[in-house]
Design brief:
alpha+beta; 7-stranded antiparallel sheet; 6-stranded antiparallel beta barrel; 29 strands; 28% strand
């Protein structure tokens, strides 16, 4: 019996081993077949597969596609060639190209809500004081110079870059672009969307006129037939949240179309006077180096802006771009194609500080309007009798909201025209007629009058404000045209220090009360109480043409 059982177990084990061997062989054979190891493995039969076909159906074009097709032919690629100084002098060399620039942007107001830079009704161009934080975002704002240099040196050893875009507004060949695209160019070339795709730079263009204040330029190419043009829209009718489209040549990729929305309006990204004529449309449409000068379009295929700048930490798209509104573009274009080929802006020759603290408004009794800081001698405002400390409220009966409103109103007036200005002086309303001057001439006069004045020294303690002062000398008073107290020292952390007062500045009045003598100064300060608004009228002897500056806060 035992023998029988043993034989049965042996047969079962042998059968099991046989099954395992068969399975192993099958797996190994499958592995060889799957990996193509076995040279005689058969391929699967695909005779029953049905070939694919491209359907004849089509999708109706959406609005974006229709706009791109309609406007694209009028959008151009702009190349420039900049010769090195050696070439300009007749010596051989390799052309050099601009690659980028930063836009200095104020970090924001200081503790008492006063920005570091004053405003001038004559606009950008004047060197203005730079306070703490005024360069806070300088490294993050970059204009679209591009600087791709995709092709390298040409046969003559000269390089060329595709630096921007533009769009045709007149079938005779007139093109709008950015000033920074063409301002350093010795040669400008334009390539149309219909031109052959070759290494040729394109058609040679010439500059008709440029305007640095708005960063706009008009160039022209010659043509023997009418060219396609864009249709301009009304940027004032654009609302935050509206769809927009950008077309241009980012990174030399011509006819690139991107879409987004209007993120904000009336953005100013340069501080002080230099940004007075730059109030951009902000968009999240993808725009990159090379888009500069190209159009920003609404859903009616109308140009509502010229792509000009981007906010970036990587020199590329990060969701924030800026376009100059079309309504400003139209005004500048019409001036640039005029016989003078320049933009003429009005000015009355005053300076002011924007974003004054609430204390200034409460002490001087105004919410809207412009508090005059300085008046340029011999210029329209001076001739009309305006003085520092006056509050301009109206122009020809229209209320003036703030400094930007005043600049826009005056700048739009032609030199030689007149305007009726309503203002308040020492609590009394008055008005006067001023003859508008030429901004460039007014600015030149103010710059030429900018002279340094010596500082005086002395000592008088004033614990309440944290400053030591002394009277200005008769010679200094005569030079400045005012009397007052010169700040000698400022105690760190004091009320005066918090308001930004510095040694060397002259306090001419406090809360509209004269401080021309030590007795007057002491009397005014003695009457100041905790919780009271205190406003200093300050003059800088080193920059007397800046006029009076108003700073203040609430006394602790």
């Amino acid at each position: 019996m035992r023998s029988f059982l043993q034989r049965l177990r042996t047969r079962r084990l042998a059968s099991t081993f046989a099954v395992l061997a068969t399975l192993s062989a099958a797996i190994l054979a499958g592995s060889y077949y799957a990996h193509g190891v076995h040279g005689q493995a058969k391929h699967d039969d695909s005779s029953d597969a049905t070939p694919l076909k491209v359907p004849n159906t089509s999708v109706a074009p959406n609005e974006f596609a229709q706009i791109a097709k309609q406007v694209g032919p009028a959008v151009v690629n702009i190349n420039i060639r900049t010769l090195p100084k050696e070439a300009a002098k007749g010596r051989r060399g390799t052309p050099q190209f601009p690659h980028g620039r930063n836009i200095p942007v104020p970090q924001g107001p200081d503790d008492d809500d006063q920005p570091d830079n004053p405003g001038q009704d004559q606009g950008p161009g004047q060197a203005v004081p730079q306070g703490p934080g005024s360069q806070g975002f300088q490294d993050f704002f970059n204009r679209f110079f591009g600087g791709q240099n995709p092709d390298g040196p040409d046969d003559n050893g000269a390089e060329h870059d595709s630096l921007g875009s533009g769009f045709i507004v007149d079938s005779k060949g007139y093109i709008i672009t950015n000033n920074h695209v063409v301002e350093n160019a010795d040669e400008i070339y334009v390539k149309l969307s219909t031109d052959p795709d070759s290494t040729d730079l394109g058609r040679k263009a010439r500059v008709i006129g440029t305007d640095k204040a708005t960063d706009l330029a008009v160039i022209k190419i010659e043509t023997d037939h009418p060219l396609p043009t864009v249709k301009l829209g009304n940027s004032d009718g654009t609302a935050v949240g509206d769809w927009v489209i950008a077309i241009g040549s980012p990174f030399t990729l011509s006819q690139t179309v991107t879409a987004g929305i209007v993120s904000a309006k009336n953005r100013t990204i340069e501080p002080g006077a230099s940004g007075q004529f730059q109030h951009f449309i902000q968009t999240d449409a993808a725009i990159n180096p090379g888009n500069s000068g190209g159009p920003l379009l609404n859903m009616n295929s109308e140009v509502i802006g010229v792509n000009t700048a981007i906010f970036t930490q990587s020199n590329g798209y990060q969701g924030i771009g800026f376009a100059m509104p079309s309504n400003i573009v139209v005004q500048v274009y019409n001036d640039l194609i005029s016989p003078t080929h320049k933009v003429t802006r009005g000015s009355i020759g005053i300076s002011f500080r924007e974003g004054l603290s609430g204390a200034v408004g409460r002490v001087y009794g105004f919410k809207n309007g412009v508090l005059v800081q300085g008046v340029t001698a011999g210029q329209p405002a001076d001739k009309a009798g305006l003085k520092p400390g006056d509050i301009i409220l109206t122009i020809d009966g229209r209320s003036i909201k703030d400094g930007n409103d005043l600049v826009a109103e005056i700048a739009s007036r032609h030199p030689g025209s007149s305007a009726r200005i309503g203002y308040v002086r020492d609590g009394k309303q008055a008005d006067t007629t001023v003859t508008i001057g030429d901004r460039d001439k007014v600015f030149s006069q103010q710059a030429s009058n900018d002279e340094a004045a010596p500082e005086d020294k002395g000592a008088t303690a004033e614990n309440k404000l944290g400053i030591a002062v002394h009277e200005v000398t008769p010679a200094t008073a005569a030079k400045l045209g005012v009397s007052g107290m010169v700040i000698q020292t400022v105690r760190p952390g004091s009320f005066a220090d918090q308001q930004g007062l510095e040694p060397g500045l002259v306090i001419t009045r406090i809360n509209k009360q004269a401080t021309g003598s030590k007795a007057q100064f002491d009397k005014v300060v003695e009457g100041l109480k905790s919780g009271q608004d205190v406003v200093f009228e300050i003059m800088n002897p080193k920059r007397p043409t800046d006029g009076i500056n108003f700073v203040g806060g609430t006394l602790p």
